[in-house]
C-alpha cells in the first residue's frame, strides 16, 4: 500500500504542478500578495486528479482516525473544498464505507431551507452527545486558515465536532498554526516547498 500511495502522491503532484501552479504576482483570498498561485480546482476537476485526490485524502482520514472515533462526514467551504469532499466520499463508498460529504456556503441561502451547510443536518437534541458527528474539514489550499475556521464554526453551530483539517496544499504562511491553535489537527498532502524548489 505504501508504494501505491507514493505513486499516487507523485502523480498528483505532477498534475498540480502542470495544471494548477503558476509563478506570478497575485492577490490571494486572504488579501495577501504572493508571487505564486495554486488553483487546485484545475487538477481536482480532472478525472484522474479527482481519483488521486479522493484516494490520498481518504488515506489521510484513516490515518487521522487512529486512536479516536471514526470521522462521520467530510466537507468544507465552497468552492475549493467541494470536489475534494465529493472525491473522498466516493472513494470511501468504493471501499464499502459510508462517508457523506457536505458543503459550507459563504452565506446562508435566502430561500428554501435558508441553510448555510448543505448535506449535514443539525443535531436534533443538543444534550444527546451520541448525535454529535466527528467531521473532517476539507480545504484545497491553506494560507491563513480563515476559510477553514469559518467552516469549523458553521459545523459547530449545527452541534457537531470538527476534529481535523485535510488539505491538498499548505502554503506555509501561518494557516496551520492558526488552525492548530484552535485544537484542530492539520493533514496536508503537499506544502510550499513541493512547488518552490
What does this entry show, briefly?
Helix 5 links the parallel strand 8 and strand 9. Helix 1 crosses helix 3. The protein is an alpha/beta fold and 197 residues long.
Question: What would you note in describing this structure?
Answer:
The model has no long low-confidence stretch (mean pLDDT 90). Helix 1 (2-20) packs across helix 3 (47-64). A hairpin with a 5-residue loop joins strand 2 (26-27) and strand 3. It contains six helices and ten strands; from the N terminus they run H-E-E-E-E-H-H-E-H-E-E-E-H-E-H-E. 37% of the residues lie in helices and 23% in strands. The longest helix has 19 residues, at 2-20. 40% of the residues are buried. The chain has a six-stranded mixed beta sheet with strand order 7-6-5-8-9-10, with helices on both faces. Strands 1-4 form a two-stranded antiparallel ribbon. A two-stranded antiparallel ribbon has the order 2-3. The protein has one domain: Rossmann fold (3-Layer(aba) Sandwich). It is of the alpha/beta class.
Amino acid at each position: 500500500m505504501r508504494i501505491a500511495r507514493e505513486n499516487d502522491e507523485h502523480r498528483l503532484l505532477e498534475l498540480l504542478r502542470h495544471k494548477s501552479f503558476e509563478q506570478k504576482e497575485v492577490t490571494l483570498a486572504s488579501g495577501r500578495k504572493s508571487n505564486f498561485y495554486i488553483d487546485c480546482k484545475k487538477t481536482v476537476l480532472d478525472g484522474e486528479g479527482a481519483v488521486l485526490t479522493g484516494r490520498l485524502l481518504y488515506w489521510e482520514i484513516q490515518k487521522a482516525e487512529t486512536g479516536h472515533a471514526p470521522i462521520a462526514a467530510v466537507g468544507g467551504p465552497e468552492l475549493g473544498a467541494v470536489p475534494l469532499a465529493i472525491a473522498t466520499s466516493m472513494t470511501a463508498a468504493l471501499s464499502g464505507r459510508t462517508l457523506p460529504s457536505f458543503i459550507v456556503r459563504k452565506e446562508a441561502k435566502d430561500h428554501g431551507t435558508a441553510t448555510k451547510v448543505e448535506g449535514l443536518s443539525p443535531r436534533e437534541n443538543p444534550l444527546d452527545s451520541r448525535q454529535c458527528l466527528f467531521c473532517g474539514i476539507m480545504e484545497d489550499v491553506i494560507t491563513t486558515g480563515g476559510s477553514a475556521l469559518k467552516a469549523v464554526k458553521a459545523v459547530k453551530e449545527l452541534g457537531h465536532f470538527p476534529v481535523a483539517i485535510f488539505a491538498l496544499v499548505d502554503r506555509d504562511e501561518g494557516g496551520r498554526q492558526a488552525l492548530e491553535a484552535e485544537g484542530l489537527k492539520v493533514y496536508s498532502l503537499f506544502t510550499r516547498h513541493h512547488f518552490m524548489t
